[in-house]
């Protein structure tokens, strides 16, 4: 990612954060936020954006460019940030520990033979911390070749848009 794109996105987020503190029913702040989104889309490096700001009981959703508030889009590795934030919030509220085994949260049909290495099944040893730190030993299903000789990454790059079904993702992990 080029530095000017990073700067633009950071500036947009900082501006939105500043305005986000004062969202009210007058609509003036919403107009300012929408203006920031509209200026961010340059159709060269940023083609579309969707932002949701929530503070207490108030929230604002805006979009610009080739996306709408209802658009679905692939966020790739950014998913890891969302999952990590949710996990850390659950830890903060005492609902889980990073040292918890994932087998406490997943059914046995998912856990069975999930991680076999050199003939030893390590599936029940995987913790939440292992998954968050990418030290579980599970393969990278995104770049792993499937029966058709292509990886999910290859298929996406070639234009084959698709969704990830949980059962199929687990099947790819077991190879």
Shape: flat
Low-pLDDT windows of residues: 1-7, 19-23
Total discrete domains: 2
**Which sheet architecture does the biggest sheet show?**
2 strands, antiparallel
Strand content: 5-15%
Number of strands: 4
- Radius of gyration (CA) equals 21 Å
How many alpha or pi helices? 7
- Note the run of SSEs as H and E: HHEEHHEEHHH
Fraction of residues in helix = 25-40%
- The span between the termini is 33 Å
Characterize the structure shown.
With 175 residues, the protein is α+β, with helices and mostly antiparallel strands. The protein has two domains: 63 residues, no CATH class; 96 residues, no CATH class. The protein is built from seven helices and four strands, in the order H-H-E-E-H-H-E-E-H-H-H. The chain has a two-stranded antiparallel sheet with strand order 1-2. A two-stranded antiparallel ribbon has the order 3-4. The radius of gyration is 21 Å and the shape is flat.
Compact overview of the structure:
The protein has helices at 3-20, 28-40, 78-92, 108-111, 128-132, 152-157, 166-173, and strands at 48-55, 58-65, 116-117, 120-121. With 175 residues, the chain is an alpha+beta fold.
